[in-house]
Amino acid sequence: MAYKVNFLLVFITNLAYFVVQLIFLQVIFSQVNSLAGWTKYEMFFYMGTFNIIDALWAFGPYFNLVGIPGLIRSGMLDYYITKPVNSQFMLSLRNVEIGSLVSVLGGVSIIGYALVKGNMVLTVGSTILYVITIFHALLVEYAVYFMLTCLSFWIIKADFVEKVHGILCYMSTRPVDIYKGATRFILCYILPYGLIITIASKSAIKVIDPLEYFVFLLLSWCFFGASILLWKLSIKRYTSASS
Question: Apex CA 73: angle with CA 71 and CA 77, to 5°?
Fold first, then answer.
């Protein structure tokens, strides 16, 4: 019963959020023809992509990573780091949130609507590129959030992590092209949430600079590698603190 209620709450919450976003886009594009070079239906495609990535993020790592600070404070982390498996992998994907997959279908529906209404066509090549980019987008989001979570080894209460994540997610509901100066630099190279949805959408429906795409792929693996190194460093600190 509890599982069904949780499933329903996740579905209703995600549905309400994206309905509001789509209404907002309708209002914006009733006044302008494009937003930083993105047309109305390209933006709909963008929001559908955001929905898919957000749902896959919630399905896998998100709820697992949220619980790590509690495991550290309670000492229950010992259970995971003493297992003969990769502790980072086990902690990140020990549970899944099946209800979040419903939102993937919602994202696909929005994308389908955008493609039809915007007279856009996905080729086999662009579809493959799109799928590859979504994987790397999730890799970036995971790595950044995981590294922020690792601050719990140094800070007793790291509640700000979720607040930072929320702000970054909100800012990434718009293409990074609309931002300028320091804000754009941070969203592209320091905390690159703004880059992930933009590159994923561009790879499918817009012309993307090969260098820009290569830099994005390189960044995703650099951030992932950094998360592994920080985890190993954090575990050493945790071990010395409990010994």
Answer: 35
pLDDT digits (tens, 9 = 90+) for 208-240: 889 989 999 999 999 999 999 999 999 888 864
Domain ranges of the chain: 2-242
Question: What is the phi/psi pair of residue 38, to 5°?
Answer: -105, 125
Residue 96, classed as helix, strand or coil, is: coil
124 torsion bin: left (phi>0), alpha (psi -120 to 50), beta (else)? alpha
What type of residue sits at position 193? Answer: Y
Return phi, psi of residue 39, to 5°. Answer: -80, 175
Strands (E), the chain: 34-35, 38-39
Q: Report the C-alpha gap between 204 and 48 in whole angstroms.
A: 12
0.90 exceeded by the pTM? Answer: no
